[in-house]
Amino acid sequence: MMSIQTLEQFVMEQQALFPTAKGEFTRLLQAISLAAKIVHREVNKAGLADILGKQGNCNVQGEEQQKLDVFADHHFMDVLKRGGECCYLASEEHEDGIELTKTKRYHIGKYMVYFDPLDGSSNIDSNVSVGTIFSIYKRKSAEGPLQAEDFNQTGREQVAAGYVIYGSSTMLVYTTGRGVHGFTLDPSIGEFCLSHPSLTIPKNGRVYSVNESNYNQFPTAIKQYLQYCKEIDAETKRPYSSRYIGSLVADFHRNMIQGGVFLYPETVQYPDGKLRLMYECNPLAFIAEQAGGKASTGVIPIMDIEPTYLHQRTALIIGSEMMVDMVERYIHEHIHVE
Ligand code: P6P
């Protein structure tokens, strides 16, 4: 009989490895886990409760807010504010981050959390998997107002990152730089249980994920790579399979499990790429690299990008190491041909 290890037990065991730890990170992850369970409950009954459809407002991205977007944002903000471990919260749904000065413990929380509360929410009404993505930093400045050095931290300085996928089952996948671990929610006991210890992404794969409708807008090197994917070659098991859900967490998670590469390159509409650095690309890049995969713009590693703006965008090529390498090779050769 398989023994059950909950997320809480797992994190406490990890904390025990650091005798000086005071449990702040454990409490932070418990808060994230609680918000994820609350969102899970609403996502799973969205079709029943009056929570489907559009909120009628637009978020700072100019995107129509889905009711579940607003619901998820509210609950992640609420549990993280009340948890007392954070000094700064930034959400895709708000133009500016929120600096938390005093917490109920009258000390300044040491963590900065950037999150996309419900990524892929435009898919909710069609019952497609959606997700939450979070990225965690430690403040660098001493107590007092946060400084530029706190906001300029690259993805390399994340202390933790993770995502929740609300799909056929609800999973929380996270890393603290010591491998990637996946937990599946067991609603019957209300706990995330360890189901994918030490998750690794296959070094190679046969799946590529891209919105092909943007083909004519892609850089030439990307077009050439997509042609490569379609060529018939038994030795390299091509043509590959094209799989695109249009929900980043769902596309990324499938490639984590099966192997594959996800591409959202620059387009005419999104000359810097569509996806957001701080709360989509950096956290998934941290997870990908910790799982033995790779994440880049096609030219530089995602986690080396210098942050300049909370909602800045970037091109994203992420997944199996050998597949990302191949995309980078096409881009590198093309840059040197032009
Ligand atoms: P497109 C969803 O809106 C999202 O932010 C990601 O979840 C997804 O990968 C991407 O946009 C899809 O964008 O332009 O292909 O619809």
UniProtKB/TrEMBL annotation:
Binds 2 magnesium ions per subunit. This is Fructose-1,6-bisphosphatase class 1. Its EC number is 3.1.3.11. The keyword Lipid metabolism does not apply. PANTHER family: FRUCTOSE-1,6-BISPHOSPHATASE-RELATED, SEDOHEPTULOSE-1,7-BISPHOSPHATASE, CHLOROPLASTIC. Its main location: cytoplasm. It is found in: Cytoplasm. InterPro entries: FBPase_C_dom, FBPase_class-1, FBPase_N, FBPtase. Homotetramer. Substrate binds at residues 119-122, 211, 244, 274. Belongs to the FBPase class 1 family. Gene3D superfamilies: 3.40.190.80, Fructose-1,6-Bisphosphatase, subunit A, domain 1 (3.30.540.10). GO terms for cellular component: cytosol. HAMAP family: FBPase_class1. Residues 201-331 form the Fructose-1-6-bisphosphatase class 1 C-terminal domain. Its cofactor is Mg(2+).
